[in-house]
Every structure is written in structure tokens, then in C-alpha cells.
Amino acid sequence: MTSSAAVAPLVPGEPSGQPSGQPSGQPSGQPSSQPSGRHRTPGGRESARNHISALDGLRGFAVAAVLLFHAGLLDGGFLGVDLFFVLSGFLITGLLLGEAAGKGRIALASFWWRRARRLLPALVCVVLVVLLATWAWGGATMLRFALQDTPWVGAQAVNWHYIGEQIGYWDGSGTRVFAHLWSIGVEWQFYLAWPLIVAVAGRGRHGHRTVAALAGAGALVALLLTVWLGTAVDTTRAYEGTDTRAAALLLGALAATAPLRNLAGRIPRRAADLLCLGIACALAVSWTVTGGERSPLLFKGGLFLHSLGAAVLIVLLTHVPGTYAARVAGSRLPRGLGELSYSLYLWHWPVYLLLLPKLGGLKDLCGGGPLGDWITAAVAIALSVALAALTKAYVEDPVRFRKGWARGRRGLTVVAAAAVAAGVLWATVPEPVPGAGTVDVEQLR
Amino acid sequence: MNSSEKTNRAPYRPILTAMASVAVLGVALVGCGQQDSGASKARADRTEVKQEATAGGGVKVLWVGDSIAGAEAPAMGAALKASGVGFKDASSDGGGTVVDSGEEITKMISGDTWKQLGENIKAFKPTVVAYQVTTYDWGTPDTQRAAYEKLVRTVKDAGAKTVFIPSPPIKIDDFYKKHESQMATAPKTAEEVAGKHKDAAVYLDASQLWGTDKSAKKALRGPDGIHNCQQGAAAFAKWFSTELGKREGFEPAPVDKWANGGWTGSDRYGKQSCSK
């Protein structure tokens, strides 16, 4: 059985923010960030930098869509998660193929360590604070689910836990402060498996072609799986499965390979501008008109088409220099949001769940209705942005660049201590059993 | 790479080890069910309440239906158990129909329901199979009739009696809209089939309890307008055990004995956002 109200968990992307004043994105010289084909120019490095800014900007649009969707203001905004997945597949595969080409091999342990250093400190910080906040301000049901979900979040497998719980069927996100972290689980599982494949298949002269073939074939298999699983009454399996959502990640990976990059590089700038405009409009329309994350068309190829469009847009933005779309995407506001996107994604859902119910008075003050919805959403988004900015400045960047409090081994020690604190908190907070007083026996007599 | 990296060949190894340990610990604790006492209780409420009949005169009820029936099940288990009646919840989250309307989804669901029913009859040996008409009982009245007749035959062959109960009034959302007229004929067809097989089936009209207006207070629907919360489950359990007791000859336990039991903490009600 399905019901109409849908609050879907949504995904963050592959963050690549840099400290202010520095170009963001991948290290220079990575193949995926370089213009190719007819567009290769002496100014390629500067051009690549602009293109990576455009990818940060895409993250900004994606996270904005997710924020608005979860606030109930953009029905198809959950597709921003799909864009995050495509970006992740593209960037990670580009890095891996670049390393394989440059060094002849991929140092997998170093790759996983860099991913962990980039993603885990902020996650640990958010989980710790959210557990405390839920204990203080959440109801018994919310705290109970938070405690049940935490180990799965720690194991980066919470998407499978939610599939077992049929969270989509029940619209269960409204009582789970970690519901949005399913996508982090999907990304981590992809990060564990895909580099192993690229490390083997990406070697040698035909490495790019082999990886492209595997990514394309894998995406098609994931599409078939989505179509098959999407016919079920409960679509959580199709929506949150790592195997089904691999379609987006693998289409991004495909876009990072030389055959696709070279193809994009041969497209004239004007044609690329028109293509980008068309795809951007199509994506914007899909974000506006899709009626929720259980719309049947999503699982009949809709998600795949969205991912495909996103992948083409990304490869055009990064491999055709000077497109108008790259300038718009790389402009200050979307780029700034994109640089905050990871922490913003982590914070926004628990902030919504814990804060929005307490803003009823403000909503009434604004006369209720759509205006009240927008104003309360604006307050929740503002708080999420503030928390994200603090997390980026004081957690993400110090650890990532080994500066400030995270110099030397201190960073590791503090993050490990925070993880232990979260574990101790999880183990010691008593799990409430809700339901007391919910039945009025007198009414039954 | 900074100086600290240069002087340390593999600074990440201890961290990777620590992270792996934490992950393994987390998974192990989940596996051990350290945090799971409530969840276990909920599972017990949901699928498992098998009580050997004693005071209930050997009555054993197998409960079949969709997730609406599932939301009623925890209280039914408690009420019937307190009455000495055996109970097994075989309702399904997402389907539960016995009717193959011809659409792919009901073909899939009904196939599963029939398979589960056969297994449950064999294992649980019920004396009563109670089927709450589901929101997937689509198709023409003839299709519905054929499915309900088959149910009565199957249950009779197993030496048990079929009890039909109509679904409570629910909010018709976009998903249900195109099947609304088919859903409306299902309870009438079930009543007709029960009337035709008086020796083997009975129709208990739950509209006496819920009424017919989905938005009325009497319907006791939860926040989603479809499932009931604890109060609705308790009301249904009391009504059902009373009605069944009259027909099967057992005395339903007083509500004080079961209505505020552990079943009220079932995670099902949390998932349905009955309370935050």
C-alpha cells in the first residue's frame, strides 16, 4: 500500500570543496578535469579550474533541490540525489583512471583512506550532535529509531537497514533523523567495490575503453534491476538499493572515460551550449513535475534518463571550454552552496525534523498557507546552512588539509575520540519503548 | 603532501584499523540485538503471536490481509492471547490480497499470498482463517468471487472456517483512485460468498465498528488516513474477539487485561508516525 505524502531520504554528493580562495575540485592534472579533443588549449589548466567550479555549482543546485524537496516545496527535488550520484561516479572514476595512467597502478588503501578522511569526520560530528539533540528534543519514537539506526550508519549500510524496514512504504522518514543517510551508504559501498574493478580493468592501453564498457554494461544491468524491483508495492528496494542506484554512479563513471570525453571534446561550443541548455531545462522540468519519489515512471527508466542527462551535462561542462552553462553553474551562489553541500546535506534532515514542528507558531504568525511554509523552511534552511558552514570550517577543512587543530596526529585522535563518544552515547542512552498511554481503555468499554 | 605525511609512511593504517573495528563492532552489536529488546517485542507483536489455545476452547486464528490488517494485528494478538485463543499474524505489508485481478501487481501479490497461506495452514493448523478484504482486492465482482470461493474451499479442506471482514474506510489517494469502484464491490462480494457457504464461512461486518466515513472520528484512522494507530487497533481487537467469541464459543478477555500491554510499543506505530 502506498500513501501520498512522501518524505524521501536524499543524497549528498561527492564533496570537493577547498578552503576559500583556492580553486575547488580535483587536483590539477587529473584526466577528468582536462578539456580534450579539439578544445585542448595552452590555457587548459585555467579552463579546467572553471569547469570544476561548474561541478561545484551543480552540487549547489542538487543540494538546493533536496532541501526544497524535504521542506515540501519542490516535488521532484529528490532527483538532486541522482545528480550527486552521477557526479560521484564521474569524479571518482576520473581520479582512479588518472592515477592508473600516471602511476601504472591504483593505491587502493590510499584511495579509501582519502575518502574516509574526507567524509567521516563531518559524519561523526553530525551523528554525535544529532543523537544528543534527539535525546533532548525528539520524542520517544524518534529517539528509539535513532538508536536503532546508528550502528547501521556507522557501518555505512543504513540503506539496506531501511530496505528491510520498508521505510519508503511507510513514509517512515518523518520519524528517523538519519533517514537521509541511505545515500551515504550507497556511495560508500560504491567506493569500496568500483575502485577494485577500475584497478584491474583500467590498466594498459585499453584501460579506458574496458572501464567504459564495464560501466555502460553495469548501468544497463542496474536499469533492468530497477525496472524489475520497481514493480513491487514497496519501492524502497528499488529506490535505496546500491545495485539499482549504481546506474547513476556508473553513468557518471562512463562519462569520465576517454572515449566519452573525446567525443564531448569534438562538439563545437555553440552546439554544446544548445545541448547544455536543453538538458538543463529537461532536468529542471523533471525536478518540478515529478510527483514524488514513488512515481511509477521513475522505475520504468525515468531515473535512468535523469542520470543519463546529468552525465551528458557533466561531460559537456568539463570538456567543452567556455560554455555558458559552465559559467552559470560556476557562479558564486551555486558554487558556494556546492562547497557546503556535504555538511549541508548531513545537517538538513535532522534540523528539519527537530526544528520544523516547533515553528508552528511562526507559521501561524505568517498566516499559515504557502507563505508560512516558505518562511519556516527558510528558517530551517538558514540554520542548516549555518551548521554546515561551521562544520566545513572547523571539521571538514582542518582534517582535509591538516591545518589548525587537525595538524599531525591530533586530527586523527580527535575524530577517533568523537567516534568513541558517539559509540558510548549510543550504548548508554536507554532506548525508550513508545506507546505508553496511547490507548484509552474507557473508550473501549 | 605535508611534512607529517613524509615522515610517516602509512599514517592511515591505524585509522583504517580503528574504523574497521568500529564498523565490525557496530555490526556485531546489531547482530547481537543489544539495542533490540523493544524491536523484538514489536516483532513479537507483528508476526509471531502464536498462543497455544487453552481457555479459548482450542480456537486458533490465522489473520490474513494487507498492512491495514497488519496495523490491527498487535492488539488482536494481545486480546486473543489473553482470551486463550491461538493467533498468528500472516498479514502482509504491501499486498496480502488473494485476488488476481489480472494486473501484474496483484498477480504477483496474490501468488505470494496463496503460497504463504498454504504454508501457514500446514504449520499453524488454524481453526479459523480470518481474511480482511484488502485494498488490492481489485478486478470484477466475478474475479473477486472466484478468489473468495477458492479461499473458502481451501480453508474448508484444511478443516477450518473462513471469516471475512471488510476493510475499514480509508483515504483514497492517487494510487487507489482508479481502483476505487473495484474496491467498493469487494466487501459485497465477500458477504455474498459467505452467505452462500454458511457452513464454512461467515462475514463479520466491521462497518458496525468503523462506520463508513473515512474522516469520521469513529473510523480511527492514523496520520496517513489509511492505517489505524494503537487506539484503533485496540477497538478492533475488542470488537473482533467479541464477535468471534460469540460464534466460536469462547469468552473474550476484559480489556484491562490486554489493552495497555507491550504491543502498544510496536515499531509499526512508530513507522506510521502515530507518535514522534
UniProtKB/TrEMBL annotation, chain B:
Q: Pfam families, from UniProt? A: SGNH (PF19040)
Instruction: Give the SGNH domain ranges.
Output: 54-187
Keyword Transmembrane applies: yes
Protein keywords: Membrane, Transmembrane, Transmembrane helix
> What name appears for this protein in its UniProt entry?
SGNH domain-containing protein
**Keyword Transmembrane helix, does the record have it?**
yes
Please give the residue ranges the record annotates as the region Disordered.
251-276
Indicate the transmembrane segments per the record.
Answer: 12-31
Q: Which organism is it from?
A: Streptomyces varsoviensis
